[in-house]
């Protein structure tokens, strides 16, 4: 009598654990997908940041060029006469 009861309890526990295991596999898969999405978003953000840096450098170079063109050429001023 004791052996069939023990066997039934082991079988029930095994089935219960097997049912729980599927959910944990799904959660692990979801976590992996979220990690992949986060990595892709980080890569996209890094690319956008690099583009912004390049645009800022280009704008600074253009401003420097415009300022140089707008400034009158430097001519030596005559020495004051006494």
TrEMBL record:
Compositionally biased tracts (Pro residues): 73-82
Listed PROSITE patterns: PROKAR_LIPOPROTEIN
Keywords, in A-Z order: Signal
Span of the signal peptide: 1-18
Basic and acidic residues composition bias: residue spans: 22-37, 45-68
Domain of life: Bacteria
Presence of keyword Signal: yes
Protein name: Lipoprotein
């Amino acid at each position: 009598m004791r052996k069939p009861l023990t066997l039934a309890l082991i079988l029930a526990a095994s089935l219960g654990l097997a049912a729980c295991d599927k959910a944990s596999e799904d959660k692990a898969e979801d976590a992996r997908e979220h990690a992949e999405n986060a990595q892709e978003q980080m890569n996209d953000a890094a690319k956008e940041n690099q583009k912004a840096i390049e645009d800022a450098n280009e704008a600074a170079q253009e401003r420097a060029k415009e300022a140089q063109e707008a400034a009158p050429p430097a001519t030596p001023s005559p020495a004051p006469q006494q």
